[in-house]
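User: I'm writing a tutorial on reading structure tokens. Could you give me a worked example: one chain, its sequence, then its tokens, then a sentence or two explaining what the tokens reveal?
Assistant: Sure. Here is the example chain.
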Amino acid sequence: MKKLIAMTVLAAAVMVAPFAAAQDNADGIAEVQALRTAAQKDKRALVATTLDLSPADAKKFWPVYDTYQRDLARYQRARNVALETLVARDRPMSTPYAKNLSNELLAIEEQEIKSRRKMHTAVMKALPPKKSAQYMQLESKLRAAQAYEIAIAFPLEK
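And here are its predicted structure tokens:
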């Protein structure tokens, strides 16, 4: 009898799990969309509200934040120029052009990663570990939303 009850409970859990995961996924998507919308209006205000920094922490954090945001904007411009040039081409992609484009996009990503590592180190020095992790998570979610937008905006080359 105990085995029957255990099997019934297990079967019910297995049947309910996909629905719970789907709800969690929908909640996560809604959260990222809300963050993206707030960041588009005023990313700095979103970060300030999320982190709730003390005046001392804010004095150390904001210069790091500003430097990183300038770096991100530079990388985004370079990525957009490369992709817009690709889309604007009126002829098929040649092998040399494809290699060059791939190398260019990879170099941009590598620069971005170096900048993120530098920012992470500086944020870890400027803020308590929990606040640092919170900022890194927020920035990661915003970057993921932006990467998704880029993926949608630029079609695959044929």
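What the tokens reveal: Residues 6-10 have pLDDT under 50 and may be disordered. The helical segments are 2-51, 55-88, 95-126, 129-153.
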